[in-house]
Amino acid sequence: MFSLEDSVCAAMHSRKKAGSLEMLSQYNAAVSLGFAASISPSSSEINPMRKASIKSFMDYPHCQGRIEPGPKPHDFASMGEFIVFLGAAARVIPTPKMRWRPLQQSRFVSSHWLTVQSHLLRPRLFPESPSPIENCNFKVNMTAQALTSDQKKDLTEIVKRLIAPGKGVLVLDESLCTMTKRFSCIGIENTEENRRCFRQLFVTTDNEISNYIGGVVLSHETFYQKCDDGRPFPDVLKTKNTVVGIKVDRGVVPLAGTNNETTTQGLDGLAERCAQYKKDGADFAKWRCVLKIREDTPSPLAIWENANVLGRYASVCQQNGLVPFIVPDILSEGSHNLKQSQFIVEKVFASVFKALNDHHIFLEGTVLQPNMVMPGYNCCQKYCLEEIAIATITAFRNTVPPAVPGVALMSGGQSEEDSTMLLNALNKCSLPKSWILTFSYGQPLQISAAKIWGGKDCNVKMAQQEYLKRAKALSLASEGKYCPPTSSRVSHTSESLFISVYISNNPNMKP
Amino acid sequence: MPQVYPALSAEQKKELSDIALRIVAPGKGILAADESVGSMAKRLSQIGVENTEENRRQYRQVLFSADGRIKKCIGGVIFFHETLYQKGDDGVPFVRTIQDKGIVVGIKVDKGVVALAGTDGETTTQGLDGLSERCAQYKKDGADFAKWRCVLKISDHTPSPLAILENANVLARYASICQQNGIVPIVEPEILPDGDHDLKRCQYVTEKVLAAVYKALSDHHVYLEGTLLKPNMVTPGHACPFKYTPEEIAMATVSALRRTVPPAVPGVTFLSGGQSEDEASINLNAINRCPLPRPWALTFSYGRALQASALSAWRGQRDNESAATEEFIKRAEVNGLAAQGKYEGGGEDAGAAGQSLYIANHAY
Q1: Taking the mean position of all CA atoms in its chain, how far away is CA B361?
Q2: What ipTM, to 2 d.p.?
Q3: Were both Cys, which of A493, B12, B17, B185 would link to B178 (CB 3.0–4.6 Å)?
Q4: Which residues have C-beta within 8 Å of that of residue A191, sequence separation ≥ 6?
Q5: A193: exposed, middle or buried (Cβ count in 10 Å: 0-12, 13-18, 19+)
Q6: Count of Cβ atoms closer than 10 Å to residue A144 Cβ
Q7: DSSP label at B118?
Q8: Taking 70 as the threshold, does the pLDDT of residue A302 lie above it?
Q9: Whole-angstrom distance, CA of residue B364 vs CA of residue B85
C-alpha cells in the first residue's frame, strides 16, 4: 500500500518523468490512499477551508465544465497530475448536488465518504502556501475506536441469534436473471407477482422453521414486498424470531487489464442504505465478491481489490448496526484439483482477513460465507467426502481467526443431497474447529419446494412441508448428525461417498 | 497463480508438527537460556560475577542440571550459539543432557537488531545471510527449533507501517528457511512495554502487528502447524498510570490472539518482557483461566522470569549451585501449573520473585 507521502512525491516526480510510472499501479495507489485515509466526517460541516478548496477545485483547469461525468485519467498531462487531482477531490465533501464520479468505475467518492486530513496537496490548490512536504503532518489516530462497546454488543447479539449449532441461513436474494432460470425450470413466468408468491412460500412457513433457520437473506425488491395479508416480509420473519438480512452489493464489474476478473460495486451511499435497511428491519447484510481459478487467475490485483472492497463494505455495515456476511466466492469452474483449490482459498482468505484487520473490522460481529474447498467441475480426479472436509477445514484453520463466530458455507451449485452430505462430513470431521460450521444455502433449500409449488396456490402447504424437511436435514447436518434416507438417490449411507463430479449440477452442462 | 509448488513434503510437515506439539505439550513451556554475551554481562554484573565464558558455562550448568522434575514442565530450551557447543563438568555436552530429559533443544539464530533509516528509532532484525547452512548445521548438532526476535515499540508515531511490514517480512523469511531445514521456527514479534500507553492501545497495536505477521507467513508459504508464536502479553506500558488486574490483561491478550492467530498454530509461548517472576506466572495463569475459547496452547517461553531467583541464589558460588537449581525448578513448576490455569499461589513471595525485571529498551 502506498503512503500518502509516497504517492504525492511520485506525483511531483512524474511531472518530470512523464510515463515512467505505470498507470494502473498509480491509480491503485490513489484509490488505496483514499481508502487508507478515510475518516468519516460529519456531513453537515463544511468549514471555510473546505469551501475554499471546493471553489478552487472547481476552478482547476481540467475540471471546468466536467463535473458530470468527470474527467478521465488521460485528460491530465501526467499521472502525477491526476493523482493530485484525486487528492484535491478527496479533500472535498461533495454536497448532494455535487455527486460526481471522476472515473466510470470509481467507487471511492460518495456523498460524505472521504476526507483526507492532510495539508500535502495544498500547493496545487493554494500556490501561495509554503511547500508542505517537509512539514508533513499526516497523523493517523491509531487508537480511534471504530465501534463503541454497545455497538459491538449489539452485533454479537445478532450473530448469536443468526448462527447457532443446528441453525443456518436461507438465501432468498437471487437476481432477476437467476430467477428467470429457476422459474423456467418449473414452467412459470418471471413476474414480480410470481417472485413475491415464491418468496412468500418460504417466509410464511410454520413457526417450526425457526428451529432450523436463524436468518433469511432478501434482495431489495423482496425486502419491501408484502404477504397476502399486507404484512411486510421482514415483519413476518421477525415474528418467527428469524433475523432478516439484505443483499447490498450491486453486482460485479470488470477489472480492466485482467483476464475477465471482476470486483463488486455498491459502496456509493452504502451508509445511508444500511441505515434505512436497519430501520426497516434488517440486522445483517450480504456482499458477494467473485474470483475464478484459471492458469493466471486469481491475479494479485483481483485478490487485493476484492478483499479490500469486502473490508470497506464490512466497515460501513458495522457502523450502521448490520452484521456483514463476508462472501469471497471462488467459483468451481475449471479443471483444478483439490490441492490447488485449497491453496487458492488459503491465499484469498489470508488477504481477506488482512483487509478486515486493516479496515478495523470487529471480527466477532461478522460471519464468513465461503464456498467449500472443491475441485473444479472439469477435474478428472474424484474425491471422497472426507478429503473434501479435511481440505476445507484445514484451509479454514490456516486462515480464519477464532474470533470469527461462524462460518456459513455456500452450496456452490451442488445438489440438495450432496450439499447436505458435505456439510455433515465437515461437522463430523475430527479436525478441531474454532467456529460454528453451518449452511447459507439457496437452491438446496428451495429446489424441491419450488418443484412442488409449480406456481399454484394449492400446492403451497405441501411445498412448505418439503422446505421444512430440507431445513431439518440441514440442521442435523450442521451438527454432524445427518443420516441420508436409504431410499434417496444416494446409494449407501456409509462414511465414504464418492461425489461424482458435479456434472448433473454444472450450469455449463445443462441442456 | 494456481500453481502449487509445495514448500514442504508430507514427511517434513509431520516432523515439524510433531516437534512443535512436543514443545507445547500440556503443562510444558520453554526456558529461554539464549542470552547473548552482552545480555549476560548485564545479568552477571548484577550479582557481581565476571562475564567470562567459563562463568557463563557454569551458570547454564546450574539450570541444565535440574533433575527429572523439570521433565513435566519444560518442553524446550533455547540455547545461544556458544552454549550449544559447551559441556558440563562431567564432559557431557549440554545438548545431550537436555535431550536425555526428553526436552527439545532450540537455538537463537538472529543476529540482533539494526536501525531502519527514516524511522523514529525503529529496527529490523538481521541474520538471514547463510541462514540455511547455519540451520542445517544446527539441526545436525541437535537443535530442532529456532528463535528469531523482532522488536517494535509503541509511541505516538510507532510502530510505523514500514516497521510492521519489514519485521513481519523478515520473520516470514526466517520461518521459511528454518522449515526447509527441519527446524520449527518460533516467531517472536515483541512489542516492548516501554511507554505510558494503556492496555487498549497495546491491544490495538498487537492486533495490527500479528495480522501483518500472519499475512506475511501466508505469503511466504509457511506451514503454520510447524511454527510457534512468541508474542508479548497485552499489557499497559511500564509508565502507564493505570493499573490493570491479571484478568483484564488475560482478556485483552486472548482477544487479540483470537482475532489474529489462525487455529492451525499449535501453541503460543509468551515472553515475559520484564515482568517479575511472580507477575509472569500470575498473568499466564489468568490467561489460561480466561473464559474465551482458545484453540492454541498458551504457555511460557521465559528467560528472566524463570531465572531471576536462581541467578541471585547462585551468585557465582559453587556451594550455591544446588540451591540455585532448586529455585529454577520451583519457578518452572509454578509456570507449568500456570500454563494449565492451575496455579493457586502467587503474590505473597517477596524477594527476587516479586522484583520487576524491567530493563528500558531491552535488547538481548
Answers
A1: 17
A2: 0.84
A3: B185
A4: none
A5: exposed
A6: 9
A7: T
A8: yes
A9: 20
Regarding beta strands A262-264 and A252-254, do their DSSP bridges make them parallel or antiparallel, or are they unpaired?
Answer: antiparallel
Q: Which chain B residues touch A432 with a CB distance below 8 Å?
A: 263, 295
pLDDT at A391 over 70: yes
Residue A273, pLDDT > 50, answer yes
Q: Which of B257, B179, B269 is nearest to B225 (CA)?
A: B179
Please tell me the distance from the alpha carbon of residue B193 to that of residue B52, in angstroms, as a whole number: 30
Closest CA to A388 of A502, A286, A302, A491: A502
Q: Which residues contact A53 (CB under 8 A, 6 or more apart)?
A: A88, A91, A92, A125
Q: What are the residues of chain B with a beta carbon less than 8 Å away from any beta carbon of chain A?
A: 1-4, 157, 161, 200-201, 204-205, 207-208, 211-212, 214-215, 218-219, 224, 255, 258-264, 293-295
Angle between helix axes B37-46 and B53-64 (nearest 10 degrees) is 80
Query: Phi/psi class of residue A69: alpha, beta or left (left: φ > 0; alpha: ψ in -120 to 50)?
Result: alpha
Taking the C-alpha atoms of residue A303 and residue A298, their distance in angstroms, rounded to an integer, is: 6
In this predicted structure, the answer to whether residue A118 has a pLDDT above a threshold of 90 is no
Can you tell me the distance from the alpha carbon of A325 to that of A330, in angstroms, rounded to the nearest whole number? 15
What pTM, to 2 d.p., does this model score? 0.77
First to last CA, chain A: 46
B338-359 per-residue burial string, b: 16 or more CB within 10 A, e: under 16: bbbeebeebeebeebbeeebee
Question: What residue segments make up the domains of chain B, in order of their start?
Answer: 10-339
How far, in Å, are A165, A244, A407, A446, B324 from residue A152 at the CA level? 22, 19, 19, 33, 50
Nearest CA-CA partner of A173 in A446, A375, A469: A446
- Catalytic positions of B, written as ranges: 188, 230
Residue pair B150/B128 in contact (Cβ under 8 Å)? The answer is: no
For A297, which of B1, B161, B204 is closest by C-beta distance?
Answer: B1
* Residue A138 clears pLDDT 80, i.e. is over it: no
**pLDDT tens-digit readout, A8-58:** 444 445 444 433 334 334 444 444 443 333 333 343 434 444 444 444 444
- Are A365 and A323 spatial neighbours (Cβ–Cβ below 8 Å)? yes
List CB contacts of A279: < 8 A, sequence separation 6 or more.
none
Interface test with A, best of B205, B218, B240 (most A CBs within 10 A): B218
Nearest to A350 among B161, B208, B215 (CB): B215
CB distance A236 to A207 below 8 Å: no
pLDDT value for B362: 58
Burial class (CB in 10 A: 0-12, 13-18, 19+), A258: middle
- Does A307 reach chain B within 8 Å, measured CB to CB? no
Q: Using alpha carbons only, what angle is made at residue A49 by residues A44 and A52, rounded to the nearest 5 degrees?
A: 100
Asked which of A109-123, A152-166, A258-272 is least confident by mean pLDDT, the reply is A109-123
pLDDT reported for residue B6: 86
Contact between B215 and A351 using a beta-carbon 8 Å cutoff: yes
Looking at CATH, the fold of the domain delimited by B10-339 is given as TIM Barrel (3.20.20)
pLDDT digits (tens, 9 = 90+) for A209-232: 999 999 999 999 999 999 999 999
- Distance of alpha carbon B12 from the chain centroid: 24
Split at pLDDT 50, 70, 90, the class of A61 is: very low
Instruction: Write the pLDDT tens digit of every residue in A140-195.
Output: 444 567 899 999 999 999 999 999 889 999 999 999 999 999 999 899 999 999 99
**CA angle at residue B259 from B257 to B262, to 5 degrees?**
75
Sequence-separated (6 or more) residues with CB below 8 Å from residue A440: A168, A169, A171, A217, A325, A369, A408, A409, A410
pLDDT digits (tens, 9 = 90+) for B193-245: 999 999 999 999 999 999 999 999 999 999 999 999 999 999 999 999 999 99
Q: What is the pLDDT of residues B40-71, one digit of tens each?
A: 999 999 999 999 999 999 999 999 999 999 99
